[in-house]
Design a protein that fits this description.
With 406 residues, this protein is an alpha/beta fold. It has three domains: 68 residues; 97 residues, Beta-Lactamase; 218 residues, Rossmann fold (3-Layer(aba) Sandwich). The protein is built from twelve helices and 15 strands. The strands form two sheets. A nine-stranded mixed β-sheet has the order 9-8-10-11-7-12-13-14-15, sandwiched between helices. The chain has a six-stranded antiparallel β-sheet with strand order 3-2-1-6-5-4, with helices on one face.
């Protein structure tokens, strides 16, 4: 990321103000025309004092970003090594790079500048955030995920968390190269997706759940009709011609009501899907997800937050109970028949993301869900953790052959 000196920042603010004063707000100005106006103003600035060519380019870019993009945050977004940007009010900005969190020597001029940037983000994806509705999820044009919290919940100023995704799509081959999983496990997961196993991906925050779901989605046969349901569109499924993408909507001051994950799942069942992909379940929509998994949409997938795969099963029970008073035994039976595989990811202390366990749900044993660990992360001979096959599949039927040896 290009570093701005205090002098350059002052120059950027001054030129930005002059450009705004000169702009004809009665008509749309293209990016190209705006860039010409900026370059002309920078040249005029350079007549009064020496400005190197490098600083001229930096100032021009800074002015353009402040008018059309996200100001100096745009430089952070363009840094390929940064995976997370955390803005804790106007004065504190942190980034995550290579698994390490670093404090940046950057800050907004004032709280109003930060709030202006927030409104620019939410307006670009038809979302709203204000004191009445101070929490919002949004996305940037390049697919970055954004979470916003304003006051009063955010006591020290607006909080913005931006999750960056690689511009180039990550493939299973790259996950193997990164050490996220092994060739053997990847081969098994590909077989499971192609054969129509229902897969649930679990893991903690920033463990790589969305990336794994996106990679697994790449194995879905092109001939199928797929419906993708998300809170904020993040998945990049490009190889399916018959793809429907649905996104939730928050209620608005104009009277538009919420459109929830539950609404979209129910709607999707009337759209003749072959497979349904649900970005993440967090609450009562877990029941609708299980019903979709159990009604002939083999090969469907979703994700959820949990510390272990077995903890995720307990969380699913709790989430279903948020929306209905079904007996626990009935919920467990829905889980055991609806989900074939649990893929659990974890983030190690060094920042690496690994598949920690691939768990098969065999069925019910009495009142309990019977599971079978197929792959587990164990310590290798060199002391490094490695994903090893520990058991053969037991389950038969949808997507599985018990005789298949991976």
């Amino acid at each position: 990321m290009a570093e701005e000196t205090a002098v350059n920042r002052e120059c950027i603010n001054r030129i930005r103000k002059e450009i705004l004063d000169r702009m004809d707000l009665s008509r749309d100005i293209s990016d190209e025309e705006l860039e010409r106006m900026i370059c002309k103003q920078v040249s005029e600035e350079a007549r009064d004092r020496y400005i190197s060519l490098e600083d001229r380019n930096r100032i021009a870019k800074g002015v353009f970003n402040s008018l059309r993009k996200l100001d100096f945050i745009q430089d952070l977004l363009e840094d390929e090594e940064i995976t997370e940007i955390m803005i804790n009010g106007p004065d504190l900005i942190f980034t995550e790079k290579a698994g390490l969190v670093i404090k940046q020597e950057l800050q907004f001029e004032n709280r109003e500048k930060l709030e202006d940037m927030i409104q620019q983000i939410v307006s670009s994806c038809n979302r709203t955030v204000n004191e009445r509705d101070p929490i919002a999820d949004a996305r940037l044009p390049d697919g970055c995920r954004v979470n916003i919290v304003l006051s009063p919940p955010a006591m020290d100023g607006p909080v913005v968390t931006i999750r960056r995704f690689p511009k180039q799509e990550i493939t299973m081959r790259e996950l193997i190269r990164y050490g996220t999983l092994t060739e053997e496990a990847a081969s098994f997961l590909r077989f499971a997706v192609e054969r129509g196993s229902n897969i649930f991906v679990s893991g903690g925050t920033s463990s790589g759940k969305t990336t794994m779901l996106n990679v697994l989605s790449g194995f879905i046969p092109q001939s199928l009709r797929v419906i993708c349901i998300e809170d904020s569109a993040e998945l990049r499924i490009t190889h399916i011609p018959n793809l429907i993408r649905l996104e939730t909507r928050n209620s608005t001051a104009e009277g538009c009501e919420d459109i929830t994950i539950r609404d979209l799942i129910r709607c999707s069942l009337r759209m003749r899907p072959d497979r349904i992909i649900i970005g993440e379940v967090r609450g009562a929509e877990a029941l609708d997800m299980l019903q979709a998994f159990n009604t002939g949409h083999d090969g469907s997938m979703s994700t959820g937050h949990a510390n272990t795969a077995t903890d995720m099963l307990l969380r699913l029970e709790a989430m279903v109970l948020m929306g209905t008073k079904l007996p626990v035994s009935a919920i467990r039976r829905q889980i055991s028949t609806g989900i074939d595989l649990m893929v659990h990811l974890s983030r190690l202390r060094n920042g690496q993301r690994r598949v920690e366990e691939i768990l098969e749900i065999v069925g019910m044993r009495g009142e309990e869900i019977e599971t079978n660990t197929l792959f587990a992360l164990i310590q290798g001979e060199d002391g490094e953790p490695i994903l090893k096959k520990v058991n053969a599949p037991k389950r038969t039927g949808r997507g599985f052959l018990s005789k298949r040896v991976v």
